[in-house]
Specification:
This protein is an alpha+beta fold and 228 residues long. Helix content is 50%, strand content 7%. The chain folds into two domains: 77 residues, Glutaredoxin, CATH 3.40.30; 117 residues, Glutathione S-transferase Yfyf (Class Pi), Chain A, domain 2 (Up-down Bundle), CATH 1.20.1050.10. Strands 2-1-3-4 form a four-stranded mixed sheet. A hairpin with a 2-residue loop joins β3 and β4. Bound molecules: glutathione. This is Glutathione S-transferase family protein.
Length: 228
């Protein structure tokens, strides 16, 4: 299949610093070799409220515009990019690994509520000190378990399923969280963090997040803040 790259691509995102779903979608476009125009709508602002309806049927980000078509929701964007622009290379060729990857991506997409609530993605934060509830600890343990299972299935010590796949994009905001908050992590998780954090695309996103002027107070946790 030859991808049609002549159609304009626009990815509508939230703040790079905080919008974990936007990061996932953008990484998929980058790993498919695309360079979409990125429209950032600063969340929790009157500007977001004023502009979101023109881009998004759900009033949420991310949304990928492909010419006059729109695809909303990070996982749908990932699958569409994979199908149209990446010759399906964003999932492993092996059927078993692909099924496992899809299950992990779905679990990330619908789960880990305690972690997502207590430890918001915050690209600018580094080693913040937090008090973890048992539910958050369970989410962290489950994520580390999944990463270990994926690596033992694929035999990879870099990306979870061998080559980069959608599941790595789904977990990228967890990597950012794990480096934003001071957490005890097993060695294999630290290695996965180091691999992701050396990635040029992720670093470019973090660099742009660091330049953003917006601060959302309720997303700024740590340094002794209670997370109960
Ligand atoms: N399931 C959606 C979740 C999208 C979502 O919750 N986006 C957040 C930003 S990360 C948002 O749009 N927040 C703005 C708001 O709710 O006003 C996806 O995977 O894309």
């Amino acid at each position: 299949m030859t991808a049609d790259t002549s159609t304009a691509l626009t990815l509508v995102c939230g703040n790079r610093n905080y919008s974990s779903w936007s990061l996932r979608a953008w990484l998929c476009t980058r790993k498919a070799g695309l360079d979409p125009e990125v429209v950032v709508l600063p969340m929790d602002t009157p500007e977001f409220e004023a502009r979101i309806a023109q881009y998004s049927p759900t009033r949420r980000v991310p949304v990928l515009w492909i010419g006059d078509e729109w695809v909303w929701d990070s996982l749908a964007i990932a699958e569409t990019v994979n199908e149209r622009y990446a010759d399906a290379q964003l999932w492993p060729a092996d059927e078993g690994l692909r099924a496992f990857g899809r299950a992990m991506a779905a679990e990330m997409h619908s789960g880990f509520g305690a972690l997502r609530h207590a430890l918001p993605m915050n690209c600018r934060a580094k080693q913040r000190s937090v008090v973890l509830s048992a539910d958050v600890r369970n989410d962290i343990d489950r994520l580390c378990e999944l990463w270990l299972q994926a690596k033992s299935k694929s035999g990879s010590d870099t990306w979870l399923l061998g080559d980069f796949s959608i599941v790595d994009a789904m977990f990228a905001p967890v990597v950012v969280r794990f480096s934003a908050y001071a957490l005890e992590l097993p060695e294999h998780a630290k290695q996965y963090l180091a691999h992701w954090l050396a990635d040029a695309d992720l670093q470019s996103w973090i660099g742009l997040a660091e330049e953003e002027p917006w601060v959302i107070q309720h997303e700024e946790v740590g340094n002794g803040a209670s997370l109960q």
